[in-house]
Design brief:
Length: about 280
């Protein structure tokens, strides 16, 4: 299992890292749209769709992204989806985690996945236009949160965060994620001259305190995204979203926190830039 996991990770890195740094903006958008279409197929499985329905959701997601790429008003459509997705992650999903019986199902859940995945794809595309390293450093924020939560939870975890959804997660793990991301954001502020990044851009508008507040929000949203996918898998009776990535599960299993965090990050950046 470990060998398979390592091989899959090496192959993914061998494809994604060169693509991130070498592909033109629209080439990167096309590649990541393929990944989001695969995630949409997995989302269809979480909706309880049969094979045809899941494939249909994947095709719809890919075709919708292609239209956003090609239409002159594509950016306006993408930005509208971005704001809608950010509102869902900030307001609706926390409520659904609290009252699980109210989570949409069937076609409504499929429509929700279509929106959330396309909004994430749009954010990945637009952040990439600011630079490959810029996007990479922002994605590392989510990975720092995940790694810090894991080790803090393993070392100090006592109080369960959401035992009915994900028994392994603890409030101590969340605290570790908060500390880890705050430290990471401060580190990025220190290297802003050498590596322009998301947090450095925020600090010029809202100061260090405001930047750390945004980092705190993004940490919370990353945890919410992880929990929401866990809830959907538990409800569907699935351990992993698929087996597309041997040793790792599915695409959604790897990007769940990115799906929630990146649209919120871009929406906040646009709003703060407009009001600055």
């Amino acid at each position: 299992m470990l060998k398979t996991r390592i091989i899959t990770a090496v192959v993914l890195l061998a494809v994604l890292v060169p693509a991130l740094f070498l592909l033109p903006s629209r080439g990167w958008a096309a590649l990541t749209l393929l990944a989001m279409s695969a995630a949409a197929w997995e989302w269809g499985r979480l909706c309880g769709f049969a094979r045809g329905g899941a494939i249909g959701l994947a095709v719809l997601t890919g075709a919708s992204g292609a239209l956003i790429l090609l239409l002159p008003q594509g950016d306006d459509i993408g930005q509208a989806m971005l704001y809608a997705a950010a509102a869902i992650w900030i307001v609706a999903v926390p409520a659904w985690l609290r009252w699980r019986e109210r989570v949409p199902a069937g076609l409504l859940l499929a429509a929700l996945g279509w929106l959330l995945l396309l909004a994430c794809w749009f954010a990945v595309w637009k952040f990439r236009e600011l630079g490959a390293l810029y996007l990479l450093l922002l994605m590392v924020t989510v990975w720092v949160a995940d790694i810090a939560a894991y080790f803090a939870g393993k070392a100090f975890g006592r109080h369960k965060l959401a035992p009915a959804i994900s028994p392994g997660k603890t409030w101590e793990g969340v605290a570790g994620a908060v500390v880890g991301v705050q430290a990471y954001a401060l580190a990025l502020l220190c290297i802003a001259a050498a590596a322009p990044n998301y947090f450095a851009g925020l600090s010029s508008r809202v100061g260090v305190a405001g930047t750390l507040a945004v980092a705190l929000i993004l940490t919370g949203i990353s945890v919410i995204g992880d929990l929401f996918e866990s809830l959907l898998k538990r409800r569907a009776g699935l351990k992993d979203s698929s087996n597309l990535l041997p040793g790792h599960g599915g695409v959604l299993d790897r990007i769940d926190a990115l799906v929630s965090t990146l649209p919120v990050a871009l929406a906040l950046a646009v709003i703060l830039a407009t009001r600055a």
